[in-house]
């Protein structure tokens, strides 16, 4: 099968997200100018640079997160564990701006250290970020948000032998459609020597 996206795929469901998978979930927390906490999962998310450490996520519409981040210049990326799957999903509901997704999902929040923003208190890890750039992408309301990581929180039980062990909390990743996966197994693969 071959198709041009502008012509349509002819399938019952768009295969694009299923092809580009698994995708890590950036559970983005922010705070409005009025002090209302916001929490929303984004599967168009990844790390993009080591020094300084930088991440990006993209929003496919004008959500509360984007408005809060534009206003404050900060956001926090929270890692989603399997134990928090249903709370993550609950935080994806399209609520009015004055609603607090932490409350709706029954999650405890904690303050960040380097930015004025809440984070998920029990997340395996959280990355405090200052915005470096917001790009409007092609399309009606597509935005890529880049941030420099200014603080890192790691839950102590997720550290084993000096390494952040993802099998200790089982991260959740997004596939296509309404599908997700859980990372329970890892393997090492050394780069070839020249």
TrEMBL record:
Superkingdom of this protein's organism: Bacteria
SMART domains assigned to the protein according to its UniProt record, in alphabetical order: Flavin_Reduct
Annotated Gene3D superfamilies: Electron Transport, Fmn-binding Protein, Chain A (2.30.110.10)
The Flavin reductase like domain, residue ranges: 20-166
GO molecular function, a single term: oxidoreductase activity, acting on the CH-NH group of donors, NAD or NADP as acceptor
Protein name from the UniProt record: Flavin reductase like domain-containing protein
Organism: Roseovarius nubinhibens (strain ATCC BAA-591 / DSM 15170 / ISM)
Source organism phylogeny: Bacteria, Pseudomonadati, Pseudomonadota, Alphaproteobacteria, Rhodobacterales
């Amino acid at each position: 099968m071959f198709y041009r996206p502008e012509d349509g795929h002819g399938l019952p469901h768009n295969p694009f997200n299923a092809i580009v998978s698994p995708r890590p979930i950036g559970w983005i927390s922010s705070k409005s100018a009025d002090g209302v906490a916001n929490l929303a999962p984004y599967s168009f998310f990844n790390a993009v640079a080591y020094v300084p450490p930088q991440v990006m996520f993209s929003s496919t519409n004008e959500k509360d997160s984007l408005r809060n981040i534009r206003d404050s210049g900060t956001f926090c990326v929270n890692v989603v564990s399997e134990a928090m799957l249903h709370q993550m999903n609950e935080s994806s509901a399209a609520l009015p701006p004055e609603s607090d997704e932490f409350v709706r999902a029954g999650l405890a929040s904690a303050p960040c250290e380097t930015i004025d923003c809440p984070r998920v208190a029990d997340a395996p890890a959280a990355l405090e970020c200052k915005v470096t750039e917001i790009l409007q992408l092609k399309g009606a309301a597509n935005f890529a948000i880049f941030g420099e990581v200014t603080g890192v929180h790691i839950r102590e039980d997720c550290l084993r032998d000096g390494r952040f062990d993802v099998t200790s909390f089982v991260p959740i990743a997004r596939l296509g459609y309404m599908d997700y996966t859980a990372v329970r197994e890892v393997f090492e693969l050394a780069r070839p020597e020249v």
